[in-house]
């Protein structure tokens, strides 16, 4: 454990990503406060955190005032970690006001805007010599003719503003972060609805390969030149086609590392990010899928593999530079989400259920029942079960 006089960290919103941040930071002695936007969030029940209620990003002005009040209430100006896309956009919009109470960890506004746009990201990748899927832009609500179906349909921005303080998520509207469309008729139906909701869309040629061809690089790049990298591959995800990793294995992947640093260096990126690729079974190339400039679902796995990326970001934010650069353990470490496993067992067929159980077996860590931090406080809270019953009556949009 590190010096107990460290500045506190505030993490918002409460989700599995927040739980990974709490565990990673607490391992180095950082006191953690979770801004709990729902009773379902797991991080507020961790033995390593204290919880304070806060309205969600979708609450607009109430969100800003609630988050500001948490910062004002701490004796030392805390470091703010943002654990999802909607909250990242809300914090970025109110950056100047929140900076009075927090040390912010989010990227600069211009860099953030460039990475959140799929079109601008793919232009950046092309300039860096990083392969991407073949992509067609949809102008307005008309699908281009003569395209080679099936195709993947995805939003240029996963979360958009629909007013001064209203956020809309493609995943929440359509149940997945991307959709496979089999023909022009199916594509047009989705495009018409998405355009009415305000989403700009792209069509992409699917990348051949299995779930296990999906690989990711977690990176930290500091202003002082310090940088660290962690790589992993998915073993299962939910939904099966375009979902979040439900079982992920941390393993060194040199080919991913080389391509990642080429992209990061060309972008001049500074901060913490999750960069996703897929091995194309058709030609063997790694193709860029996404660049998420924020913490992600299995970020705790990086720390378990010896690369504590949240702590590196924390140290830079408080000015504690010159940290030793960690290297990833050569041993494979498997992370599993019990909530995602239960979703898979509920949604999948018999064959997929058996495969899911085999894949999840051997995971050395997982949300509520991780060794050393079993969330027993969650299991005895009536408000948690009330919220769980309410959530069970509507489709789950996020792990």
Question: What would you say this structure looks like, in words?
Answer:
The protein has helices spanning 16-26, 61-72, 85-93, 95-98, 109-116, 118-128, 170-174, 184-197, 254-267, 299-304, 309-318, 338-347, 350-360, 376-379, 382-392, and strands at 9-12, 32-36, 49-53, 79-82, 103-104, 135-137, 151-155, 159-161, 167-169, 179-181, 201-204, 214-221, 227-238, 244-250, 271-279, 286-292, 333-336. By secondary structure, it is α+β, with helices and mostly antiparallel strands. The longest helix is centred in the middle third of the chain and has 14 residues, at 184-197. It is globular and about 60 Å long. The model has no long low-confidence stretch (mean pLDDT 89).
Primary descriptors:
399 residues; 6-stranded antiparallel β-sheet
Query: What is the count of DSSP helices, taking H or I runs of 4+ residues?
Result: 15
Class based on secondary structure composition and strand pairing: alpha+beta
What would the principal axes of the Cα set say about the shape? globular
Assembly state (oligomeric): single chain
Stretches where pLDDT falls below 50 for ≥5 residues? none
Give the end-to-end Cα distance, rounded to a whole number of Å. Answer: 30 Å
Helix content range:
25-40%
**Average pLDDT level:** 89
Record the strand order, biggest sheet: 16-15-12-13-14-17
Strand content is: 15-25%
Q: How is the biggest beta sheet arranged?
A: 6 strands, antiparallel
Backbone CA Rg:
20 Å
Count of β-strands: 17
């Amino acid at each position: 454990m590190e010096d107990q006089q460290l500045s506190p960290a505030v993490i918002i919103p409460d989700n599995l990503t927040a739980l990974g941040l709490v565990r990673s930071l607490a391992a180095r002695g950082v006191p953690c406060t979770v801004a709990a936007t729902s009773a379902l969030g797991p991080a507020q029940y961790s033995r390593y955190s204290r919880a304070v209620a806060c309205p969600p990003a979708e609450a607009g002005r109430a969100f800003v005032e609630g988050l500001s009040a948490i910062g004002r209430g701490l004796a030392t100006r805390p470091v703010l970690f943002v654990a999802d896309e909607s909250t990242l956009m809300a914090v970025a919009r109110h950056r100047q006001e929140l900076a009075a109470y927090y040390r912010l960890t989010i990227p600069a506004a211009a860099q953030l805007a460039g990475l959140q746009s799929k079109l601008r990201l793919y232009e950046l990748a092309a300039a860096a010599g990083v392969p991407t899927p073949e992509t067609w832009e949809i102008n307005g609500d008309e699908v281009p003719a003569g395209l080679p179906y099936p195709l993947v349909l995805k939003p240029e921005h996963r979360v958009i503003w629909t007013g001064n303080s209203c956020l809309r998520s493609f995943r929440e509207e359509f149940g997945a972060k991307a959709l496979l469309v089999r023909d022009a008729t199916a594509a047009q139906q989705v495009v018409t609805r998405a355009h009415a909701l305000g989403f700009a869309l792209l069509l992409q040629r699917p990348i051949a390969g299995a779930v296990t061809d999906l690989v990711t690089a977690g990176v930290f790049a500091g202003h002082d030149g310090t940088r660290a990298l962690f790589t992993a591959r998915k073993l299962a995800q939910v939904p099966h086609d375009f979902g979040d990793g439900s079982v992920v294995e941390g393993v060194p992947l040199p080919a991913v590392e080389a391509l990642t640093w080429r992209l990061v260096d060309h972008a001049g990126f500074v901060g913490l990010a999750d960069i996703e690729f897929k091995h194309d079974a058709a030609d063997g190339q790694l193709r860029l899928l996404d660049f998420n400039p924020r913490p992600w679902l299995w970020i705790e796995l990086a720390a378990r593999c010896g690369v504590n990326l949240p702590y590196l970001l924390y140290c830079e934010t408080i000015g504690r530079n010159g940290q030793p650069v960690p290297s990833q353990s050569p041993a494979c470490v498997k992370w599993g989400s019990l909530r995602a496993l239960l979703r898979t067992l509920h949604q999948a067929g018999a064959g997929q259920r058996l495969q899911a159980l085999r894949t999840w077996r051997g995971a050395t860590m997982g949300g509520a029942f991780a060794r050393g931090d079993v969330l027993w406080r969650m299991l005895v809270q009536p408000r948690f079960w009330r919220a769980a019953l309410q959530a069970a009556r509507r489709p789950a949009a996020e792990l």
